[in-house]
Amino acid sequence: MMHEVNPKETPRAEAFELWMKAPMPMVTLMKTLDVSCLVRLSRRKGLKFNMLMCWCIGCAASRVKEFYMLPVGDKLMAYDSLAVNTIVANREEGLNSCDIPFMGDFNQFNNDYLHFTNLAAEKCRNYDLPDSMVIGTSSLARYEIDGAVGMYSGIFNNPFMIWGKYKRGFFRTTLTVSFQFHHTQMDGADAARFLTELQNKINTLNLTKGLPG
Q1: Residues 85, 78: Cα–Cα separation, whole Å
Q2: Could you report the per-residue pLDDT of 136-153, keeping only the tens digit for each?
Q3: Number of C-beta neighbours around residue 90 at 10 A
Q4: Which among 2, 212, 213 has a CA at the least distance from the CA of 108?
Q5: Spatial CA neighbour of 28 closest among 134, 121, 142, 151
Q6: Residue 208: CB partners within 8 Å, gap ≥ 6?
């Protein structure tokens, strides 16, 4: 669920005053991740790489309290749940948006990912979770890119991640990601901590309780 909060009663009070009316309040950080563990796990367990990335993003975000608050319109909203969005290619050669609820259970997340992305692809419909704070993602997995800067529409203030094709090396596989966020929601240090948490989660994923096998 979500509810409105008084910005002055939150740690984001100053940021709310500074950035809510800024013409461009979005900030983008870029980071190269070592995704060797994800690639190995994807192949060994027959799991989708994109699903594993979305799972790790949800895990990392859940450890950063700033993700549970988001400016919506001219208000600051607090949330008690997270979701990770993915873009799905549908059967009519179009694209649909699909929100996957994040509740901390890997098997449930994997099942939800497969279920909702398949529905979006077959029915050519978006699946939205308006009561959750949604982290957007876009995977350009066929293309090698060095980075991306998201578009600020003035409507959606949600954090957003973009990545392209991972790059194989002799000893590791890397993936460059961009992370865009609204400065009212978090500061650069919070975003950098999230990216660090993301790398840590990727590194330890094969040891995480709850993974199959």
Answers
A1: 18
A2: 999 998 988 888 887 777
A3: 15
A4: 212
A5: 151
A6: 106
